Amino acid sequence: MRAAVYDNKGAARDVLNIVERPVPEPGLNEVRVKIAVSGLNPTDIKARKLPPGQIAAQVPLTTPHRDGAGIIDKVGPGVAADRVGERVWLSQLDRTMTLGTAADYALVPANLAWRLPDGTTFAEGACLPIPALTAYCALFRDELIRGKTVLVHGGAGAVGFYAVQLARWGGAGKIIATVSREEQAVKAKAAGADTVINYRTGDVLQQIEAAAGGPNGVHHVVEVNFGANVALDAALIARNGTLAAYGSDAEANPNIPFSAFMQKDVLIRAAILYETPRKLISRAAAEINGLLEKKALRHQIAARFPLDRIVDAHEMQESGTTIGKILVDIAELD
Ligand SMILES: NC(=O)c1ccc[n+]([C@@H]2O[C@H](COP(=O)([O-])OP(=O)(O)OC[C@H]3O[C@@H](n4cnc5c(N)ncnc54)[C@H](OP(=O)(O)O)[C@@H]3O)[C@@H](O)[C@H]2O)c1
């Protein structure tokens, strides 16, 4: 089968190649999926890039990307045979995986391949896994958001765009989103945000307080960049508020204003999907499928590349300038 691979960390252009790899055989409780579309996420870039200060890092031969959509073509022991032929969206959710979805076939545990409802395309299915599951878990894990004021930082990001939509579906009273550009504001509004605030201009705390109806008015924060926003979040969050942070690219280990959070009895969850209980992930996938059945979720696709242009896809993802998902087309199965 055709597969993108790297065996050294480094720049996409230097390390990524397309090669022939053997078609893998599904093991116990696994399914093999013929991939239609592979979805790229920031985690795939972080896995491939050379960490700062490191000169070379040899790794096992690795096919990148955890997310994808396609058709189950073979099942391993322990999986019902009637799943063969099922259209699925999937995420491998395994940091050590070496057989990702940027290939003709990928293996995935059967409980991480979810039926793709009719009427949802493979491209839409490949947008969903890590972003939509992260958004769901960041909203519905620790507190009930019904009737509450929710702040989604980065409301036009891959995760943020789903988080705004899911907060609306979950009955949030008010949804405030932050963005840094007008095109992002349009997306966050379309997703269902009541108020969209440019976090790079003006007094952001004052604007959020005005939108929330006063100081300490945000009950739940969905945080994309904890290190950049932690002081702001400590200032705006409500008493007994909750904060789910799933990213902190600006500063991996920021200083946390502990007392400010403690005085308001705030719950902070540093969330990572790889370690999220599978039971919660199954619930998230089922709820997302319910929304797909009703055609009630929007997806945003920034660009699509054929497999032999995977380097361009990675470079675009790294540019940080796109809005929406970058996909790699593997085979026409629709
Ligand atoms: N923990 C997990 O399980 C998990 C799961 C998914 C993603 N992630 C991580 O979460 C991050 C986002 O992933 P993604 O796929 O959503 O990426 P994305 O599509 O690039 O979206 C990131 C968004 O965050 C915005 N942003 C950045 N800094 C911000 C700030 N200080 N305040 C408000 N918005 C800000 C960006 O906008 P501008 O920079 O243009 O303003 C962009 O819209 C990545 O670091 C990724 O690795 C973690």
Protein architecture, described:
By secondary structure, the chain is an alpha/beta fold. It folds into two domains: 2-128 and 300-329, Medium-chain alcohol dehydrogenases, catalytic domain (Quinone Oxidoreductase, Chain A, domain 1), CATH 3.90.180.10; 132-274, Rossmann fold, CATH 3.40.50.720. It is built from eleven helices and 16 strands. The strands form three sheets. Strands 3, 5, 6, 7, 8, 15 and 16 form a seven-stranded mixed β-sheet that branches. Helix 4 (129-140) crosses helix 10. The mean pLDDT is 97. NADP nicotinamide-adenine-dinucleotide phosphate is lined by residues 41-43, 130-131, 134, 153-154, 156-160, 178, 180, 184, 199, 224-225, 228-229, 246-247, 249, 271-273.
- Spans of at least 5 consecutive residues whose pLDDT stays below 50 are none
| Span of the ends, CA to CA | 20 Å
% residues in beta strands: 25-35%
**Could you tell me the radius of gyration in angstroms?**
20 Å
CATH class identity of the largest domain:
Alpha Beta
Order of helices and strands: EHEEHEEEEEHHEHEHEHEHEHEHEHE
Question: Which compounds are bound in this model?
Answer: NADP nicotinamide-adenine-dinucleotide phosphate
Overall strand count: 16
The gist of it:
With 334 residues, the protein is α/β, with parallel strands linked by helices. The chain has 11 helices and 16 strands.
Secondary-structure map:
Layout: E1 2-8, H1 12-15, E2 17-20, E3 30-40, H2 42-48, E4 58-62, E5 67-75, E6 87-91, E7 105-109, E8 113-115, H3 122-127, H4 129-140, E9 149-152, H5 158-169, E10 174-179, H6 182-191, E11 195-198, H7 204-212, E12 218-223, H8 226-236, E13 237-245, H9 258-262, E14 267-270, H10 278-293, E15 301-306, H11 310-319, E16 325-329
Parallel strand pairs: 9-10, 9-12, 10-11, 12-13, 13-14, 15-16
Antiparallel strand pairs: 1-2, 1-4, 3-5, 3-7, 3-16, 5-6, 6-8
Helix pairs in contact: 4-5, 4-10
Bound molecules: NADP nicotinamide-adenine-dinucleotide phosphate (NAP).
The site of NADP nicotinamide-adenine-dinucleotide phosphate (NAP) has 27 residues, from α2, α4, α5 and α8.
